[in-house]
Amino acid sequence: MPKQRGDKRNRSNQKNKKEDSQFQERVIQIRRVSKVVKGGKKLSFRAIVVVGNEKGQVGVGVGKASDVIGAVRKGVADGKKQLIEISLTKANSIAHPTNGIAGGAKVMMRPAAPGTGVIAGGAVRTVLELAGVQNILAKQLGSNNPLNNARAAIDALESLRTFTEVAAERGVSIERLYAS
Description:
Blueprint: H1 2-21, E1 24-37, E2 40-52, E3 57-65, H2 68-81, E4 84-85, E5 98-102, E6 105-111, E7 118-119, H3 122-131, E8 136-142, H4 146-158, H5 163-170, H6 174-179
Parallel strand pairs: 7-8
Antiparallel strand pairs: 1-2, 2-3, 3-4, 5-6, 6-8
């Protein structure tokens, strides 16, 4: 009997490893931060990590720890908790222009023709690449902060709606939506 239970555990561990392996992670920024405590300054590291599967799922996570590896690991775990799902067009672009805001950062995104590539900078580019978007025009406005820009990109992607969602919301058929 104990062998069977062990076999089930091994199978579930293998399944979890396969699920984890489909996600890619990229570190946007690692920063040394300090906290003033009674005995002096306590140094730690903050890692901003983007996690995505290049098939429409992406998330941004932040982790803090006393060592870099621990901070990155926590950032990846946080990113997987924050995952959002986006729907891509046949040209691996977004359905319509959209804007996102986080803190002082604003991000503007527009769909692009096939073959354009990802025209974006910094953290926004990383978020879009790991989301699986291949043709898009994006511009960061306002703040330069990588964390706020990544969160603004997630906000913009989250606000996307497909034609079927809009048609269902309005209570009309998709054909009628195109006609008007």
